Please model this.
Amino acid sequence: AKSDAGATGQGFVIINNAEADISISYTRFENLLLPLNFEYGWSRPSVELTQNEFIKNAGSTAVLQLLNPGLTGDAASRKTVFVIKKNLFAENFAPLYIEDLVSDRMQVILESNAFVNNRIAEYGKYTFSSNFLFGRMDKTATKYKAIIAGNSFVGNVLWDNNADTVLHAANIGLYGSFD
Model:
């Protein structure tokens, strides 16, 4: 999925509940505003994002936005396994956002990815969301904890738009009540 030179596109939106798994491999996402958006209430038994490239995406919301799976019907009791493995995230202007890294419905596995030269823009204020990978970890839902292992973070920065300068490294940001 790539937009024309000089233009940006929207990307893919995953919504609703379905029994079919999702597997996206060997795909290049470039010049998009929000390449992959798993919208609130979506649900699938399994999702695998492997061997993809997320390059020079221009949106400010997220390169990959993973909101919570469905709360109704079969989706409310089904475990979703979400694997993000062996992908390259390079020269993007938006983060990878995972709403809940600890959940009673979803197991997130984030392994062996490379996060290289991404630039998150802010206006002189650092928060947890000022990192390339960020999400919530609360004590309220603790059945499945995210597995984050073997990832490389190189040259990712928080950029101050007002001062037009690098503030500091931007890697992983967590928030919530989990210890």
